[in-house]
Specification:
The protein is α/β, with parallel strands linked by helices. The chain contains 8 helices and 7 strands, in the order E-H-E-H-E-H-H-E-H-H-E-H-E-H-E.
Length: 191
């Protein structure tokens, strides 16, 4: 057997969306990165995701400021940057497009609830606005005419599986190594 121990700056378990995005950014930054995957790349939720991207996070919808909502905003901005760079670095079209995100109200209670969240959401995404009637149907003509209104923001979407494949391709060009296998433990040199 081979007694040589390999050394990595970062080892990531899981070749899904989060693992590969992290690995790609670290490899691009010069780190020696290993991504370990027991199945296939994007075999789980990452490959089946609708790839929807929205700048306002959970906390914003609860009318509170939190770190997770700030992370959503930063992640959305990062995706906007990746939409330009990733297809060039990987040669794979990720299908990125910006599109409106609409949260609908079908009852007066839902309308009031959504309207009450407007200022908190605008903290994270200044494009958020409340629309009703014709203004809302101009954004999405196929909406049910019984809808009372909706909060509309600018979101985005990627083709999730192609996005993950592009991450692998670009990251490997920057030195990331992807291996198939299962993590069964962690061994440290004490540092």
């Amino acid at each position: 057997g081979n007694s040589r121990m390999e050394s990595w700056d970062v080892i990531i378990v899981g070749a899904g969306y989060g693992g590969l995005c992290s690995g790609a950014l670290l490899a691009h930054g010069g780190k020696k990165v290993l991504v370990l995957e027991k199945d296939a790349v994007a075999a789980g939720a990452s490959g089946m995701s609708p790839g929807m991207l929205e700048p306002a996070g959970r906390g914003a919808w609860e009318a509170q400021e939190d770190e997770l909502s700030e992370l959503f905003c930063q992640s959305f901005r990062l995706h906007q940057e990746l939409a330009c760079v990733l297809p060039q670095e990987s040669g794979i079209d990720i299908g990125y497009r910006e599109q409106p995100m609409i949260h609908l109200a079908f009852s007066p209670e839902e309308a009031e609830s959504l309207k009450s969240q407007l200022s908190a959401l605008r903290h994270y995404d200044p494009s958020v606005r409340w629309l009703e009637g014709q203004a809302l149907w101009e954004v999405e003509p196929r909406l049910n005419r019984d809808v009372l209104g909706g909060l509309v923001s600018q979101g985005g979407q990627v083709m999730a599986y192609r996005f993950v494949l592009a991450l692998v391709e670009a990251a490997e060009r920057h030195g990331l190594e992807l291996r198939h296998g299962e993590a069964i433990g962690l061994q440290s040199d004490g540092r």
